[in-house]
Structures are given as C-alpha cells and as structure tokens.
Fold:
Amino acid sequence: VEPGQVIEYRTVYSNTGDASISDLAVIGPVPAGTRYLGKSATTDVTHVFEVSIDGGTSWHTEPLMRTVKQADGSTQNVVVPPEEFSHVRWKASDAIASNGSQEYRYRVFVLPTEGNTK
Structure:
C-alpha cells in the first residue's frame, strides 16, 4: 500500500451454528497512518452506526460534536471531522440466521509518510 491510496476493509461474519446470533457489535479500527473516509461505512444490515475518537473507550452517533472555546471566551459546538475517528462500530439489529452471514465495509486513506502517526 502506498501513501495516497484508499484501503477498503470488508468483514464478513458467518454463523455456522444451529441457532441465530443476535446483538452483534462489529468494530473496525482506523489503523495508524490512515484516516477514516467519512460516509464510507456500509452494510445491508439494520444497525446503529457509531464512531469513537478515543481508541474505542466511548462511542457516539454522528454527527459527533465538541465544544470549542472561542478567542472572545464564548463557546461553540463544532462537528468532529471523520479524519479524527479512531474506530467505527455497527450495532446490528438483525440477527445472523443459522448458516447466514453479514458483511460490513469501510474505507481509510493512507497518509503521506511524514504525516504517518496517530
């Protein structure tokens, strides 16, 4: 992989058991040296999509907001850009049936070497 390229992660969960599997939470890390590409997370499964900016300690739905102090002392709520996401997570509402599967995808951008730290 070269700087400037896009990597697509594709995760497939298969159920080889006899009973359905429910309450699946699928977590995708944003590796060091990459940045998450906003709105690239997809699945055909009914779900709640969440993001983390702190290594997966806390999770938030989008848009994720933060309060920023202005020069005049006032505060303003601003949207946290997807480039700051450390992880993405899907909380699936649909169970995986016996012998069924679910697929989850997201993309990251590979940073230039000099910006290749997290």
